[in-house]
Amino acid sequence: MWATDRALTPAEIQAEIGADLAYNTVHTILKRLHDKGLVLRAADGRRGAYRPAKNAAELTAEAMHEALDQGPDPIVTLQHFVTGLSPEEERALRELLGGDGP
Fold this sequence. Notes:
The protein is mainly alpha-helical. The chain has two domains: about 10-50, no CATH class; about 55-95. It has five helices and two strands, in the order ααββααα. It has a two-stranded antiparallel ribbon. α1 (about 10-15) packs across α2. It is elongated and about 50 Å long. It starts with 9 loop residues before the first helix and ends in a 5-residue tail after the last helix.
């Protein structure tokens, strides 16, 4: 759904997935995602069309915050996280935090 700027119907999503998922399964999953606030539903004639409520980066950042909130020591978790960054990711993080990089 993130690959397009427009809302997709369950039938369009089913066709894109291409797996042996029944239309009803796709529709049920979309309804559950909508109930959780992960997708937005727009009326499109008789059928609804769906689009993500947040982009991939927003969802990833939200998951990272939740992971930090669940751990016993978020600082130690961050220390472990940053030691696994690539040089490019570390440089980007330093720039975002306003620190001086090497």
